[in-house]
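User: Could you check the structure of this?
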Amino acid sequence: MASINIANIRRMDLNLLLVFQCLMNERSVTKAANALFLTQGAVSASLRKLRVVFNDELFTRGSHGMTPTHRALEIAPQISEALKSISTLLTSDQDFDPTRSSRVFRIALSDDLENMLAKRMIRTANEQGWTISFSFYQTNSYLWPQSMQEHGADLAICSSPKFLSTMHKSQVLFSASYICIYDRHSVQFSSPISKQEYLHAHHGRVSFDGLRGFVDELFDAERLQRKVKASFTHFSGAINAIVGSPLVLTMPDYAARSFVECNSRLAVSPVPLRVPSFVVSMIWDINKEHDEESRWLRRFVLELTEPADH
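Assistant: Sure, the predicted structure tokens are below.
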């Protein structure tokens, strides 16, 4: 991942970083202006300055709002981490003691993130002797508002969340992309998988509706029909299905590596086609912004998802 030029950061107004993060979360100049209590003109002016500092467009206007460029996705976790460090200096969570609390934290997240994060959270809590506990609920980038309302979730964690509103706040945790995962004992691929092997392999599909995903569009661009032998709406079910089968899955890199840690039969390989990047964010109710327990939970999740862990 490319790093941020420190000399540029030193010359930068801190408010520009806040504008960047808000644009990353809201994907709209209008919504970012409302969230920051600024005019649209002020946000646009800040974006122009950011583009000069980073020598990149950062956000381009499209049919679905302001779309972050590859460079924006690269620097988003670093800017988020910088703002987190500054926030830590200004606030204190020492009043909440997880070793003296029986609090049950409710977290809505997709199963790919659950597989990675839940075990980290539970392991850390046990190692530290905390008396708190966690409840995890399934959601995705489209259904997170419903999940938060139905389950009273303290946090929702998902990739590239849709429908962000002024009633919620969000923060980028990290950026990610996609990788191939398969059963090394059931199918023989080159290392890494070649483009021809990938295009002619038998695939498992994981998508919101189980009918079509972005990989199908990659195959359309190659003028080929993907050989999909099974479709799933959850990654955990798909992983169970590929063990002992010749299927290859294309899934978020953090989830694939987490699954490999649990099963030595599984192997990963870069996708031999250009795949998109995306960001994973956590979202919370704006009314919990200054709640000491919620603030502690957000800091805990940030620490567990720092780039060094990926």
